[in-house]
Amino acid sequence: MNKGVMIALLSIGAAQGLKIPIHYVRKKEWRPELFFQTGGMPSSHSAGVSSLTTYIALKRGVPTIDFALSLVYGLIVMYDAQGIRRQAGELTLKVNDLGELIDKIHKEERVEFEEKTPKKLKEMLGHQPEEVLGGAVLGVLAGAAGYFLSKNDRKKTCTKVR
């Protein structure tokens, strides 16, 4: 398998896994299901793209088109994670609050109303800037570690061949 892809996927998994103990430390609540959810600290999106970009920078060099593509793509993903997706999450909070407001209105009125219980919209869609930064730092560390570990593997392989 492509080592850059493997490193990016591993850093995404590490970021998702770290969400559980970080949430526990912050909220004193153990929630293993966070591994499969979006949002939270650290951003797995940022970890994935920054680990791949770091690996490409170290393996192929900064002046390459590979690095340029990865960097621009990564910046767009991180901007989207903390910008548009976070705004959608905040809008979802307001929509979910509307349901409670409607319930209060209906309780005070004597109007007969049959309502199906809607599913509550998912509120953790995007990331706060510090969550994106946390994911980016994790990704840079994972990308560098992946590069240097694979570099040592190549040295061992080359010395065995000779």
TrEMBL record:
Record-linked InterPro entries: DUF212
Keywords per UniProt: Membrane, Transmembrane, Transmembrane helix
Coiled coil: none
TM regions (residue ranges): 132-150
Keyword Heme: no
Name under which the protein is recorded: Acid phosphatase
The species this protein was found in: Bacillus canaveralius
